């Protein structure tokens, strides 16, 4: 009985890793499409987002089967509970990457504008997602904590981008449409960073049983 349960837990772990890989792919491609001004690459984001949605449903079904059939306790229960939470954040990362890709296809964003730190924000956010997934795969508590702390970097970059866009509109009122589009992109990157933090916090819970939103 335990052997079968261990096999199912290993399957859950494997499926989460696959979904994490899809999240890394979708956010990386969305960022590259934006920074290169590549609508063709942006179009490739949607099918990956749809695959993330399918993977979410598969993992949720597997988790519910494990909860109902095996009635896990202690660390096993924490892992399954964390997985259910993590896939929600992974799915939203896919959605927001798709939103960035859609703006890239529809908006006229002059990507040679080096005065806007959107490149730094995109890079930092991709690193956060990659780090959160790696923390789960390796059960790396120290890395999970580093990802949580790194969110301040992304938040500060968002504030910097926002200030730069305000100055841009002040200097050139005709750039208003571009500024609004880029502000939306920056907000999506910030939200992706927040979801990476959520994933890292559930990694911490799976390892230690401690989560900031769960009372003792």
Give a verbal description of the structure.
The chain is mainly alpha-helical and 216 residues long. The protein has one domain (2-208): Phosphate transport system protein phou homolog 2, domain 2 (Methane Monooxygenase Hydroxylase, Chain G, domain 1), CATH 1.20.58.220. It has helices at residues 2-36, 39-43, 45-70, 74-106, 118-138, 141-171, 176-208. Helix 1 packs parallel to helix 4, helix 1 (2-36) packs antiparallel against helix 5 (118-138) and helix 6 packs antiparallel against helix 7 (176-208). The longest helix has 35 residues, at 2-36. The radius of gyration is 19 Å and the shape is elongated. The chain starts with a helix and ends in an 8-residue tail after the last helix.
Question: Judging from the principal axes of the Cα atoms, what is the shape?
Answer: elongated
Main sheet attributes: strand count, strand direction, barrel closure:
none
Average pLDDT across residues?
A: 89
Content-based structural category:
mainly alpha
CATH class: Mainly Alpha
Return the string of H and E elements.
HHHHHHH
Q: How many β strands by DSSP?
A: 0
Helix and strand layout, with pairings?
Layout: H1 2-36, H2 39-43, H3 45-70, H4 74-106, H5 118-138, H6 141-171, H7 176-208
Helix pairs in contact: 1-3, 1-4, 1-5, 3-4, 4-7, 5-6, 5-7, 6-7
Keywords:
mainly alpha; Methane Monooxygenase Hydroxylase, Chain G, domain 1; elongated; 7 helices; 216 residues; single chain
Summarize the structure.
With 216 residues, the protein is an all-alpha fold.
């Amino acid at each position: 009985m335990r052997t079968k349960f261990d096999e199912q837990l290993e399957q859950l772990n494997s499926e989460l890793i696959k979904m994490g890989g899809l999240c890394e792919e979708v956010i990386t491609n969305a960022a590259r499409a934006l920074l290169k001004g590549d609508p063709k690459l942006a179009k490739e984001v949607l099918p990956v987002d749809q695959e993330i949605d399918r993977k979410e449903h598969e993992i949720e079904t597997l988790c519910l089967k494990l909860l109902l059939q095996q009635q896990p306790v202690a660390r096993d229960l924490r892992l399954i509970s964390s997985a259910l939470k993590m896939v929600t954040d992974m799915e939203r990362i896919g959605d927001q990457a798709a939103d960035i890709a859609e703006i890239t296809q529809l908006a006229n964003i002059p990507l040679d504008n080096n005065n806007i730190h959107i490149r730094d924000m995109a890079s930092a956010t991709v690193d956060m997602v990659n780090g959160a997934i790696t923390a789960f795969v390796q059960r790396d508590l120290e890395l999970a904590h580093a990802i949580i702390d790194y969110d301040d970097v992304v938040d500060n970059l968002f504030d910097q981008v926002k200030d730069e866009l305000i100055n841009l509109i002040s200097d050139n009122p005709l750039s208003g449409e571009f500024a609004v589009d880029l502000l939306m992109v920056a907000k999506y990157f910030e939200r992706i960073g927040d979801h990476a933090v959520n994933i890292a916090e559930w990694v911490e819970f799976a390892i230690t049983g401690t989560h900031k939103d769960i009372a003792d």
